Amino acid sequence: MATNTTVEIRMYHVGFGDAFRITVKRGDDVWRMLVDCGVHGSSVGADIAQSVRDIISDLEDDSADGTAHLDVVIATHHHQDHVVGFAEDGWADVEVDEVWLPYSENPKDPDTKKLGNHAFAAAKLEALIDARMNKPRLSADATAMLQMAKEFAVNSGAKEQIEKAMNRLGSRKGLHFATPVKPRFLPDTDVDENTIDIGRMGIVAHILGPSRDPAMLKKMNPPKSVHWLSLSEIDEDHADDDRPLFSTEYIVERTAVSADLMRAKNSMRLTKLDDEMGILAAASLLESARNNTSLFMVLQVGELHFLFPGDAQHGAWQHVRTNPDALALIENVDFYKVGHHGSHNATPKPFIEEEWLTTGDAMVPWGSVKSFDDTIPEPELLKGLAKKKHRTILPGDVRKGAGKAKLKEEPNWTQLTFTVP
């Protein structure tokens, strides 16, 4: 009798952040990947240190010899809610064979140099926000906008714990997993290197993004046809996806997102942003620029396909959806890790309504952040998933659908188990 191959997708309840463990099993053969480990600094009730202890303890319990081991660790992009957990010291005892990072984390890559220094720009914005918040007689609305702007800036920045996490992932400055691992930066400029055959149990990773085209990376705000917000919520005169996210008063040049931020930094023009809406828009722009550098992957196991897009926004999705081979992969996925915690601008409307041809499971990694609670997850996105009969799973909240994987819920995680045909 043939032994079945199973695929477990475990979503840890870290709060407003991502941590997904993927386990492929056939008999005694076990392969494991962890996609991201982080939480937003303002996530209500989150304890990333405890979440990391849970992840490592589970790895120890599930291994044959009690050794915590991962075949692959992926950090999809340099945001606190995806990487800060790797700063925890417990990772120093975990055996990791490979680390995959987006090419934007490779300082030697010529395309990385075109993107500029997001972390420096974030630090300048945060300092500006703090100074503005200390001014007297700020209105409640202004305070709320500045608080949200700070949350964007901090998530994109270079705080000590974020840098510690990135140093561990890159085996730098004495930080690493149990042994140093040279990271693999993806996608490779050699397209053949972006289809990664693991050589076991039919596992193949298809790396579809991020794009190396700066023009594509700067496309962050979707047009109306791709947007989940209702028409009444969209300004008819400003819905084109190439529109700037903040007033042209604050833009030096729009050909490269990070370039204008760097020019502003170099000339100290950020100090001229004396309008709360302008500051919020600048911070939002920086947040979105990072999201669009997300490593975008379809993991294939036999006939099953699992979509992990990080927090890719419009341009990153467009890069995939306009490539016929890539589109063919995402059209028939059995599982979708919903991008950017279910925000309105991370999952293209046509993908859900027209392009995802099979019926499957969607997981939304979400936790409360007070500034975002009214907008994330986007209700229209959840309705769209339900209309197409996809089972949608949030921590502690399962929306019924036609997903066929076996569901298991525990206090610290929710897991789907698929059997490969």
Entry summary:
With 421 residues, this protein is an alpha/beta fold. It has 13 helices and 16 strands.
Descriptive tags:
alpha/beta, 421 residues, eight-stranded mixed sheet, 20% strand
| CA(first)-CA(last) distance | 14 Å
Q: Count of helices?
A: 13
Mean pLDDT: 83
User: What gyration radius follows from the Cα positions, in whole Å?
Assistant: 21 Å
Strand arrangement in the largest pleated sheet: 6-5-4-3-2-1-16-15
Structural class: alpha/beta
Order of SSEs, N→C? EEEHEHEHHHHEEEHHHEEHHEHEHEEEE
Which strand-content bin applies to the residues? 15-25%
How many strands?
16
Q: Report helical residue fraction.
A: 25-40%
Low-confidence stretches: 230-257, 260-274
What does this structure look like?
The relative contact order is 0.15. The strands form 2 sheets. The chain has an 8-stranded mixed sheet with strand order 6-5-4-3-2-1-16-15, with helices on one face. Strands 7-8-9-10-11-12-13-14 form an 8-stranded mixed sheet. The chain is built from 13 helices and 16 strands. It has 421 residues and is α/β, with parallel strands linked by helices. Strand 7 and strand 8 form a beta hairpin.
